[in-house]
Design brief:
The complex is a heterodimer of chains A (about 200) and B (about 230). The longest helix of chain A is centred in the first third of the chain and has 45 residues. In chain A, strands 1, 2, 3, 4, 5 and 6 form a six-stranded antiparallel sheet that branches. Chain A is an alpha+beta fold and about 200 residues long. Chain A contains two helices and six strands. Chain B is an all-alpha fold. Chain B has one domain. Helix content of chain B is about 70%, strand content about 0%. A two-stranded antiparallel sheet of chain B has the order 1-2. In chain B, helix 4 crosses helix 5. Chain B is globular, with a radius of gyration of 19 Å. Classes of the chains: A alpha+beta (about 200), B mainly alpha (about 230). Chains A and B meet through helix 1 of A and helix 4 of B.
Chain lengths: ~200, ~230
């Protein structure tokens, strides 16, 4: 049997289009629940990240900076600010690490007003699960090393031991944490003075 | 694959034929244990029974839906375009499952990680669609897909329970991904403080467990066939 080029292309286009339509439909069905879940997770996360007392609505006290995104991702990095009354308490920076093994790794770093790391957490990653299970990125015992550090302690990505079996990801994460911390310490005044943008 | 299934003698009762076909799929033609293909998602997530069950259900859905779609469009799709179309069909189904899981079972989805999207290009499914579904009637390919996904599910359940039991000393430890916090009451913990045999939870443990399972199935299969003769 011979098939004309037209019928081949037509079949592919029809399959592709129907696939796109089906996925689109389910995208719109699931968009609302997914975004609600994300908001819920964000506020739960903030509770965990800022162990200090604050009384403002952090989710809406947000600025975005592009300076941190230079290393590959063009998206501006959001920074949330915690205040108590008029006094600054600390910030949460959510950088994205572009150079993991697979997809970008999403990080959350909270820094107190003085410039000391409070917590560091990996929000989302697609690195190979199960690679060296015990020392894996999900295991936050590695990230505990960063707590309480300031710039001087992390001279380079090698200032903190890399995870064996996940050295690329872990050094990328360490670099991102160092960059965020450096950025906060050098641009501190600006970060606190900027007017917050409306959250969408 | 599949062609020998139809050679079963017609004189037998229908139930007996189906039972024989199923046993054949499980033991002699089990895609995971006899042909050892498409293993990566299965070995990667089988450290937990809940995840194995989920993966089994996902395989069932993807298998039956692709077989249904491919076999019902087998006269419409010209062979040179077939592979591309089948991959598109599978990818669509897997993406929809992915979106639904992100919306309603986000924890389970993140536990499956990269291995859920990988199901779309699993050679088991591509093999099934090209070799069987594209050349058989709708009912025959549906039946074949159901048999195969049940066989895969069986292997997943056995591997999942074995690895979780030895690795964590528990059963269904991740059930709260599916049921919420209430499910934690149903977790069976056999050892204290989640301790277990670490090797079983690692990828190497997956291969060893699968090897043991294959040996056991081989033993059973020879025993069954010697009983029959």
């Amino acid at each position: 049997m011979k098939f004309s080029r037209v019928s081949l292309i037509l079949t592919l286009v029809v399959t592709l289009l129907s696939g796109i339509m089906i996925i689109n439909f389910f995208y719109f069905v699931t968009r609302e629940p997914i975004s609600q879940l994300e908001i819920k997770q964000q506020s739960e996360l903030i509770q965990k990240l800022i162990p200090l007392a604050y009384d403002n609505d952090m989710l809406n006290d947000k600025i975005k900076v592009t300076a941190l995104g230079e290393s590959g991702t063009s998206d501006p990095v959001p920074i949330y600010r915690a205040r108590r009354g008029e006094l600054p308490v600390g910030v949460i920076i959510l950088p994205t690490v572009p150079d993991g093994d697979n997809d970008p790794i999403k990080l959350a770093i909270s820094i107190d007003y003085q410039g000391k790391i409070l917590t560091a957490k990996i929000l989302d990653h697609n690195e190979t699960p199960g690679l060296g299970n015990k020392n894996h990125l999900d295991n936050s015992t590695w990230l505990i090393h960063f707590i309480g550090k300031n710039t001087l302690d992390i001279a380079g990505p090698n200032g903190i031991d890399q995870i064996s079996g996940a050295s690329i990801s872990s050094s990328a994460v360490a670099t991102a944490i160092r960059k965020s911390l450096d950025f906060y310490r050098s641009e501190k005044d600006q970060i606190w003075e900027k007017t917050s943008i409306k959250s969408e | 694959m599949g062609k020998n299934i139809n050679k079963v003698r017609v004189t037998k009762r229908k139930g007996a034929i189906i039972r024989e076909q199923y046993l054949d799929t499980v033991f002699r033609k089990n895609p995971l244990m006899a042909r050892l293909i498409g293993l990566s998602p299965i070995l990667a997530i089988s450290y937990s029974l809940t995840l194995s069950l989920t993966m089994g259900v996902i395989f069932f859905i993807v298998f039956t839906l692709t077989s249904l779609l491919v076999s019902s469009t087998r006269y419409l799709i010209p062979p040179p375009a077939a592979l591309a179309c089948y991959v598109l069909i599978t990818t669509t189904i897997v993406t929809v499952i992915d979106l639904l899981m992100q919306a309603w079972y986000p924890e389970l989805r993140s536990a499956l990680g990269i291995y859920l999207p990988i199901v779309a290009i699993n050679c088991l499914i591509i093999d099934q669609t090209i070799v069987f579904s594209s050349q058989n009637t709708i009912s025959a390919s549906l039946k074949d897909a159901v048999f195969h996904s049940l066989a895969i599910m069986l292997v997943l359940i056995l591997l999942g329970s074995f690895r979780e039991l030895t690795g964590y000393g528990s059963l269904l430890k991740d059930i709260h991904f599916l049921t919420g916090e209430a499910g934690k009451a149903h977790v069976t913990q056999f050892t204290q403080n989640n301790t277990g045999f670490l090797l079983a939870t690692l990828p190497a443990g997956a291969f060893i467990s699968l090897g043991l399972l294959i040996a056991f199935a081989d033993y059973l299969s020879t025993k069954l066939s010697s009983n029959r003769d």
